[in-house]
Amino acid sequence: MEHPDQYRGKEVVVLGLAKSGVQVAKVLHERGAAVTVNDKKERDQSPEASELESLGISVICGGHPEGLIHPGVSLVVKNPGIPYSVPPVQKALELGIEVVTEVEVAYHLCAAPMIGITGSNGKTTTTTWVGRMLDAAGMSPIVAGNIGTPLCQAAQEAHADNWMVVELSSFQLKGTKAFRPKVGCLLNVAETHLDYHGGMEDYIASKAKLFANQEPSDTAVLNWDDPVCRELVPYIKAAILPFSMTEELVQGVFVRPAFVPDTDDGLKRMIVYRDYSESETEIAAVDSIGLPGRFNVENALAACGIAIAAGADPAGLAEVLANFRGVEHRLEYVADKAGAAYYNNSKATNSKATSMALASFRKPVVLIAGGLDRGSDYMELLPVLGGIKALVALGQTKDKLAAVAGMAGVKRIISVDNGESAAAVLQEAVREASALAEAGDIVLLSPACASWDMFTSYEERGRIFKEAVHNL
């Protein structure tokens, strides 16, 4: 797309009335575009509509009317979660009308260099961590997008001496054209969101758009332990800064000694940065990191790499690594009840995230899992489920998960589906898990599934879980 200033007097359609849609509509309206906002929700479910109409923006609720998209429309900006299969998007593509997401609009507005962070797992934790690191380094970060201030709003407020730190989903990146982050990071790639993308090829291609417009003066931070990340290297023009838990790198951020399965307990490990001249800085001891779990070591490596690429001194990162205590719904400690520790990992919306969470504990785990059925068979969980004490399954995938747990040899499997509401089902699951847990055990909500079969979001699911735990 062109700069938003170039749409004066032109018709623009914004699909979706969420925070990003409201901000995009305001931005384009302020620049003289004739903006129409459309949302399939009914008017009484769209409180934002009145505010936009008071500004002179046209709002259509209750469905997608015939004629909404026509040859006179110059641009469509869609909410990232709206599939490309919906009629207005399909019509726009047929007519050759550009379809973008808020990220593209914000990029054109932003005076600050941008850091884009994506991956199947760990995005929010890493993004928040980077913000803390840059703040400690006096680099004036603005954390925006999926977390923090809506991206378009933050982009208009940013100055050249800020750094814009942005968590990005595959949905958002798929709708970008010119977007070029100064630093881009791909954390990992796992099988997820296949109902939206139609397959892994489109999912990976959407993630890879993070690097599509980067130049040699930019930096791509890549997980060297992830084969998909490494396969992208020939297509990336930016300077590559890798990170690894398992390999001592010629240049990059790594753990010394490396993590080796079943052979590395008790070893003293250090996070090390080695620059292009092979000069080294020992950043911090792995056991000083403030978050539990091997996967959080990986997030820490990524955050260090990103911060260093942006100009932070690697010698100054240790305090932030030690003091950061994580983000809500990401392996969040909730409480101890009768000697068992309860953890909320509601953000684990795919099998890999749940596998990583289970690998974080050495104590017996009673796992609560299940949710929206996106077609996965959950066989990826087979190796890790064999080590759990019990499974409490719920949601659309409860039978699939119970079947895989049975194959893994789990002896105690309970399916919960007898509540009058989603909240009642989850509360019952917590009670069942509590009955199975003994002193010294872990009770872990790590669903391996999205929440939308029962809840409006993973945040709602996590909050209800925490309330149920506190009410035991």
TrEMBL record:
It catalyses: UDP-N-acetyl-alpha-D-muramoyl-L-alanine + D-glutamate + ATP = UDP-N-acetyl-alpha-D-muramoyl-L-alanyl-D-glutamate + ADP + phosphate + H(+). GO terms for cellular component: cytoplasm. It comes from the Bacteria. Gene3D superfamilies: Mur ligase, C-terminal domain, Mur-like, catalytic domain, NAD(P)-binding Rossmann-like Domain. InterPro entries: Mur-like_cat_sf (IPR036565), Mur_ligase_C (IPR004101), Mur_ligase_C_dom_sf (IPR036615), Mur_ligase_cen (IPR013221), MurD (IPR005762). It is an enzyme of class 6 (ligase). Residues 329-449 form the Mur ligase C-terminal domain. Pfam families: Mur_ligase_C, Mur_ligase_M, MurD-like_N. GO terms for molecular function: ATP binding; UDP-N-acetylmuramoylalanine-D-glutamate ligase activity. Pathway: Cell wall biogenesis; peptidoglycan biosynthesis. Cell wall formation. Catalyzes the addition of glutamate to the nucleotide precursor UDP-N-acetylmuramoyl-L-alanine (UMA). NCBIfam families: murD (TIGR01087). PANTHER family: UDP-N-ACETYLMURAMOYLALANINE--D-GLUTAMATE LIGASE (PTHR43692:SF1). This is UDP-N-acetylmuramoylalanine--D-glutamate ligase. It comes from Paenibacillus graminis.
